[in-house]
Amino acid sequence: MKTEIPSMNGFVRQWHVIDAEGAVLGRVASKAAMLLMGKTKPTYTPFLDTGDHVIVINAAKVRLTGRKEEQKMYRRHSGYPGGLTEVEARKMRATRPAKMIEDAISGMLPKTKLGKQMYRKLKVYSGDKHPHQAQKPVALAV
Fold first, then answer.
1. What average pLDDT does the segment 36-42 reach?
2. Is the pLDDT of residue 12 over 80?
3. How do 53-57 and 84-88 pair as beta strands?
4. In a domain, 2, yes or no
């Protein structure tokens, strides 16, 4: 029996819209990561990017459970000695709300060239408007 290896020509990429208003951050991120990787499709292949495009709107209204609003820290390092910057979730939501969702989703994707290619299909907006109406995205409940 011959093994069928899918080619990139046969894949149809759809566009999905996820409304994050009132939804828990981790649940939104895991749903988006599954769509970006293509794990919801029967044609999923681990070594190919078979996933769909994902648009997340209302990123500023995503919900954090427990005391994460005060306790969760977002860290980054400049690469220089003493270059660690820590920002708590409340301040991150006030300044860059889309970054919270982007970080959560990128943490769930593969840490390879393929994962970077998947991440480029993600669009996050803090408000309820997005410029991708021409792609006819399908609304997705979380």
1. 94
2. yes
3. unpaired
4. no
